[in-house]
What we know:
The structure holds 2 protein chains of 2 kinds. Chain A is built from 1 helix and no strands. By secondary structure, chain A is an all-alpha fold. Chain B is mainly alpha-helical. Chain B is built from 8 helices and no strands. In chain B, helix 2 packs across helix 3 and helix 5 packs across helix 6.
Amino acid sequence: MWEKLGVGMFFLVSTVALTFVIIGLSSFMERLxxxxxxxxx
Amino acid sequence: MADKSFEIFPKNSNxxxxxxxxxxxxxxxxxxxxxDTIFSWPHLFYVELIAVLVVTAALLFLSLYVGAxxxxxxxxxxxxxxxxxxxxxxxxxxxxxxxxxxxxxVTLPALIIIGLMLIPFLDTNPKGxxxxxxxxxxxxxxxxxxxxxxxxxxIVIGVWFRGLDWSWYWPWNDLHVHKPPIVGLKDLSxxxxxxxxxxxxxxxxxxxxxxxxxxxxxxxxxxxxxKRFYNRLGIIRYVTTMVLFLIMAGIPVKIALxxxxxxxxxxxxxxxxx
Lengths: 41, 274
């Protein structure tokens, strides 16, 4: 039972974690873009 | 250093301008002065050219100095166990554990492609056109990131957590020892029938109802919570968006039900099983 729960939770948690990593990368790139854009003006 | 910037529309220009067309809506440059824009040539293209050269050089060095991970020559009477596809197909191969082959291999990939193609027709958010950033389209980026996160998780599992007989192997498990096959997987209709003491037909009907309720609730509840979202999209765009979203959100739910509760299929029909 614990093995099954572990596998299932690992799948769900890694999906959610990867989603937030991708959103974080997206926000980071946005910040980088905006900072460079300000510097170039 | 001399100032190299130049005016795009010099004030004493002899050029004449004519109004060609009036277009409704907003465009990326709507609120920008001409002085606030720059030409893509050479400003953008130079950066892109440098990026192309850097990537090409990196790939060249990688291919020269890092050998491809080829295995031994294929034997006619030995099939490798596990037989793993290239990493980028492992998400698809992992889906095959949980869905019918034609659903995992044909329908779901087709839905991904159709969904991506429909984005320009479904997305009515005028903000950030030209720069699709998170702060300007939180919902769209979040939904897309969820899809990509799910796909990546399936690839990660396929690459690092599947071993002999496609069983689940944690990093601390011995990869050379076979794991006992998973037994006791049951369809949801059978679980309903045994737990509630009803006929298999009724159990099956109940499982159909459950899937129907999932889609009905997923379609109706957001109409009341996100009224603006619904009004902006209109019924056809809203239903298309939500059905695609609910199918995507249903995939991890179905996978988790199988992994945690040993539910083989949620809905069994004579034509397909999900």
